[in-house]
Amino acid sequence: MTLPTHFFLSALLLALPTSIASAAAVPATLAGEWLSGPQLPASVYTTEFGGANSDARRLLLNTDGSYVFTEFESTYYPSSFGTTGYPITCQMMDVTVERGTFTVSGSKITFKTAKVDRVGAYSPDRLNNGCKRNSGIRSSKAESGSDTMTWSVASGELTFKTGDGSAKYVRRTPVAKTPAPTGLPTELRGEWHNGAVSPIEYYNTATGKWAEASGTSVILKMNANSTYERTGLMVVTTYNCTSKLLVQEKGTVKANGATLTFTPTTSSATGYTCTPDKVSTQKNHIKPYSERALVKVDTRGQHTLSLMSGSGETLFNRPLGSAPQSQPGRPGTVTPPPPGAGGPTTPDRSTPNASLPTKWNARGEWDAVMTTPAGTIRTRFSMDDDDPRILGSGFSGDDAVGWIQGNSQTGALKIGLEVEGGREVELNVTGKFDGDSYSGRFTTTNASGETLAGGTITMTRRQGNR
User: Fold this and answer.
1) What is the reported pTM?
2) Is 466 among the domain residues?
3) CB contact set of 249 (below 8 Å; sequence gap of 6+)
4) What spans are recorded as compositionally biased (Polar residues) (predicted)?
């Protein structure tokens, strides 16, 4: 073993019993691997010597009282490139591997050398172009002799001291674990479109241009850092009445297996019913919600994202003009990994998420009966459901008499109705959808915000209108 210079254990040893030391005699703080210089893979110190290209030492103290000491020494020398005479620097290595036994008594450690193997003047694996490669000169012989020195471990350092000097060693620095994959699976990231997506400037509420858009659509952007943006425009036209609702949300999205949980940090809903000049806005009204994700791959390599919830399935495509995300000819599905598994997903021809039942939603024609102390009001509502956002219009015969907005999951609704004198009253409804029926209670306010009498509401969906 070498300390500051050529200081092999065989030159340091005193006396040691012939038997290997008891495992119990080796302190836990001393046993194990100790290194000086570059920390190389364990195999380099024993067989793959070419992996070393600088001075380095390793001392392995086993709990059974045996040890292995390896020392690499590097030497550089001048040479020239072929017949050009161009000067280059070449390198050769020497390695010594010493094996034996040791015993410990308090702060003293005694080594007994048994065998020494050497490879001299060999070339490392990494060598400058033009340098001559040498396999080295090998030798092996038995040794005998012993030496004793003082040892101590403090602050993670092992120090050996003799009358000629000292040497320090440290533990191997643990290899940093590869962090588990974070963020969204790759196949979910990016922009997805549903429906007839209008030019993006039409979704600018600051300019009011969103009102010019003509198609029900959704733009969903999911980023690698687990943030998302969702912009949805719902357009319902019945007879001469057009109603529009623009919903925007931003927040975080978390994948747990095939389930995506969206947690909005900001949200807004802006809309009107029949009259574009009468715009209403609602802020931060969307609660966290979850959807099941499934990415389908067609024969052209194009991906389709399916998001499924209690009220049905919504399909998204990549924006028009997007390049295929997979090689053509491998149709199937791509599903996120099971919870906690991490790692990338792989194509699979099965569709494990397709078995989820498709539940009812609020889409369709509904006959409503509203009961108040002043009497009964009967209205027909035509509703569209963007899961869970509801937008629709109210009719008496063929005449538009109101609007309806709400949430099909929570059952919360807002209804606007025209009454005598061209006035409008607003109903704030709490209730519950149950298949093709709805029941709830409401309070009423007028245009001045004054609370009026409340009542009850029941609705029944017309058959074949889902």
Assistant:
1) 0.39
2) no
3) 229, 230, 231, 262, 264, 266, 267, 268, 286
4) 348-358
